[in-house]
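Exercise 7. Given the components listed, write out the predicted structure of the assembled complex. Treat all entries as one system.
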Amino acid sequence: MTVHRLATSVALLLAALAYFVPAVAGGSPVAYAACTTIAILAVMSYGADLILSYLGEVSLGHTIFWAAGGYAAALLSVNAGWSGLPTAAAAVVVAIVLAVALGLATLRTREFVFSLVTYAAAVVAMEIAFNWSFLGGSDGIVGIPPLTIAVGSWRLSASGNDQLWPIAWVVLMATLLFIHRFRHSRLGTSALMVQMNPDLATALGIDARKVRLGVFVASAPISALAGWLYAYQRAYVGPDMFETYFLVLMLTAIVIVGRRLLLGPLIGTALIIVQQTFFSIGGDGDKIVLGSVLAAILLLWPRGLVGLWTVLASRPRVHGR
Amino acid sequence: MNILQQLINGLVLGSGYALIAIGWTVLLGAARLVNFAHGQLYMLGAFVAWAVMTKLGVNYFLAVPIAVVALGLLGVGLQGLMLRPVMQQNLTSLMIVTLGFGYVFQGGAARLFGGDPERFVSPLQAAEIRIGEIWFTWQDVLTLVGTLLLFGALWLVLNRTRVGAVVRSVAEDPRLAQLFGINAALVYIGVFVFECAAVALGAGLVAPRSPILTSMGFDEVILTFVVVVLGGIGSVTGSLVAGFGLGLFTALFGALVSSAYTTAAAFFVLLAFLVLRPRGLAAR
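Answer.
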């Protein structure tokens, strides 16, 4: 058995085990709700992770794609009676269109200008969602039907978290597979090269702008699919999907374990949601915890908990010398 | 609609924008730093002044300076925490760290001051001046005069004094400035403290116009960003002009088109500017 095959088998085994986590955790509604939420928010974070980890830029606009996915699901299922797969396709298309527009507008911006423009775009998108009656205005859109997925004669209708969990698990696994493929793709390696050494990348014939746009557009549908599922989970979408909470959560989930790690954002999201579900100290208190963790990680161990591990592991040897 | 009234509204709004933005302009120009907690610092400035007034019964004219000093001290603490990434000029980390700080301030302020809208009242807000059909308040006059004085003083300090020369040399090349014996870390702290204090002053003068909420601050960041970019990053006179320009634009847009979408409109002006003149703004 080759190493590659062994790795694939271990990955498949872990993926299968992940499916039974809520059942092992007691099978209670709370366990299913927490696991489904973790899966959804982790997928949302993976969208921003592509930008932060592989382009080295900070996108503060991924709440736009997250909300776009939610609004696409809500509008089409409530007003047009579409079922789950067509609304998912629509969420992806809307996200790609928005990402191309925002990506082209920010194509030449770097660093804080890029972050600020994406941030400003998110604030403006929230203002539009808040004021435009087509999108439900400040009330949002209520009464989203249960998520129905129909393939041929096979039908699945999911309303509660225990029924949504298998779908959330599939979306999460598909996202992990996509990120894994991306890391080894030409686009992924080019993005890293553009981030690490732009001059070398250009010398090797890589068009930095094309790579940046490509990664930006690839990242948007991931967050949009998370928003799509979130709309069904809450049976409601509203301008609160643009809240800073989601933005801070994405960034914290990415940096907490360490950037450029396949499972990093998933473990980070799990840590945050477990704290907020089982060890909450009130909404405002949780804000203080989340913000402090984000700032503290970057100030104390910029490489995340993995970096902290390296420091701890090397300490005894240093003392031994 | 009275055009003259809208022009006056625009000048008053614009002086507020410029005042709120000035700290950021200096921070970006002199230290090449960005602070995403800027909007939350504005919120804190307003709430500290409000709390001092309502809980301690202090007069408005004393409460605002107290808020300015309090935020200045907060600035020392924050910059102390961030000194390592600041000295490394690690912008990516700093952006996320300040975003985290802003989130902590938002949660902390909601715990401390409660989640309800509060009335932060200036005695000058009720003192109106009417000339024919147009009217404004003494608070508007104070904001306008205060902004012009602060910008004038800042311009003089940056361009005509030894301190200004030190700040400009660090902005130009921090390593070289350090070779000449300049303490760059001290300059960064000073600039950051100025940002915090200036935004507190802006909050003290501008926030009494409407009820204050611990969740506010986002619009202020966007408008600040528009002012800083349109004015030319780091340019003091530029941001004053851009502030007035944006104020006139939002006053006229709000009166003629739609008041709900003014932030969106300001943002599209910014986008158009970025698309038309990207090279000048992309990086220094």
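Discussion: The first strand of chain A starts at residue 141 and ends at 142. Chain A has one domain: 11-241.
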